[in-house]
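User: Quick sanity check before I run a bigger batch. Here is a single chain. Can you write out its predicted 3D structure?
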Amino acid sequence: MGKNNHPENKYRKWFSTAITYLIAGGLCWYMLWASAISHYTVLQNTVPEWTTYFCTGITTGSLSFIYASYIRTFNRTLKYLLNAFTGGFCLGFILSLNCYDVCVYLFPDKVISYESEYDVVFPGPSRGKYGHCEAGLWLKDQNTSRWIQLCTNKEFLRSHHKQGMTGVWVTARVNKIGSYIVKYEFIYM
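Assistant: Done. Predicted structure follows.
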């Protein structure tokens, strides 16, 4: 009986495959969740988003490059090492996207409510490659002094926006990095 046909090796292989798929599924879920959070988050102007994303990518790419250069393989060519760096860079870059939005959502300093001016536009913000929201609602965030465009539709506007409502009451979770819009409702000012 060969070494590869031993039952222990089969179970170990199935176990490691299951763990790998669970981790990959968890990472995909995290990226979708973080992307959904980012639609309701506005960050301060001073947050170095792109610098953080690139530095994280370069760090993970460098670690992958170092690991690939020390692992025992027969194919330790420059192309192999650059592929390891590129794969690590892409993994680190993609996983660090929206990390500041997640920090705003998970670690708020306080929850505030305030009146805001607003503007409704048609069509709304882009939602993917093939579509837009039916309507967009621009709100001015008090914490960051920046505008954020939220996705809405005509039916919601028709049922919640009445004649003479000139303001929006916004509830937001805020910290030093930015604001996460929890809810909003139209009000008379």
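The first helix runs from residue 7 to 38.

User: Great, the batch can go ahead then.
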